Structure to design on (263 residues):
């Protein structure tokens, strides 16, 4: 485990150190510590290569996609788990089977669908595609948590006069907080790091997400030798993911274990 940890952590440390080096220092001493910290690399990445605007776009897309996913997945999971209706099992299996379909098969139809609804080259359209793509996974996790909630709690709430929507949002949702946190963080990380769908559905540079901006910066660094700037941009893009996962790692692990056992 120690050797594996070193193999995983050292490239990240190397990336952070490279972000503070000059181009000459990166080539002269790629594995050494920086002799002088060049914070200008971060300013160049943020301003000259529009990492700042792309960072903002990624925040918008990630937050919007995550919220839409929760607004759709929570009531859908409750209906599939608690509401008795004809075809419920078939519909649930249909959602689960969608997890087996490669997302790449839907890129071309989605392109023409978004173009038809004027959502192509639109951050909201991209967030909508993200949320729908993670809906089966979210439903799979949340239904396993909702199945463990005693029905007596819902029956008692109904006797007290609470409506079905009130039971869902005031009783069931708080009790499935661990599953909701797990789904939220895992989806948000994937939305933040996604590249290919953004490449297909976003066409103008002012709407680039971080994945597209980093690709543009990478190509620019090859011709202008702006390697320090490239490392700085990569550092900016990975820091939010590292912080979020570090803070919620215990909750994510706990949620996945509980979901697996309850499912």
């Amino acid at each position: 485990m120690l050797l594996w940890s070193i193999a995983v952590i050292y490239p990240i440390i190397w990336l952070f150190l490279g972000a503070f080096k000059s181009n000459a220092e990166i080539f002269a001493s790629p594995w050494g510590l920086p002799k002088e910290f060049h914070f200008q690399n971060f300013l160049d990445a943020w301003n000259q290569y529009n990492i700042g605007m792309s960072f903002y776009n990624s925040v918008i897309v990630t937050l919007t996609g995550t919220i839409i996913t929760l607004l759709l997945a929570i009531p859908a999971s409750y209906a599939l788990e608690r509401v008795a209706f004809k075809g419920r099992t078939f519909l649930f299996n249909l959602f689960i089977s969608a997890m087996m379909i490669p997302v790449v098969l839907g890129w071309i139809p989605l392109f023409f669908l978004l173009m038809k609804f004027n959502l192509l080259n639109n951050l909201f359209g991209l967030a909508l595609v993200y949320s729908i793509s993670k809906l089966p996974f979210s439903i799979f996790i949340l239904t396993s948590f909702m199945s463990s909630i005693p029905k007596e709690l819902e029956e008692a709430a109904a006797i007290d006069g609470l409506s079905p929507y009130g039971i869902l949002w005031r009783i069931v949702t708080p009790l499935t907080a661990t599953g909701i946190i797990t789904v939220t963080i895992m989806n948000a990380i994937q939305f933040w790091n996604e590249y290919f769908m953004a490449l297909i559905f976003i066409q103008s540079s002012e709407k680039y997400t971080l994945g597209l901006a980093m690709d543009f910066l990478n190509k620019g660094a090859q011709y202008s030798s702006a390697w320090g700037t490239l490392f700085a941009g990569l550092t900016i893009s990975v820091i939010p993911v590292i912080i979020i996962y570090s803070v919620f790692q215990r909750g994510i692990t706990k949620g996945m274990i509980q979901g697996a056992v309850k499912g």
In short: The chain has a mean pLDDT of 87. DSSP finds 14 helices and no strands in the chain. The CA atoms of residues 145 and 177 lie 9 Å apart.
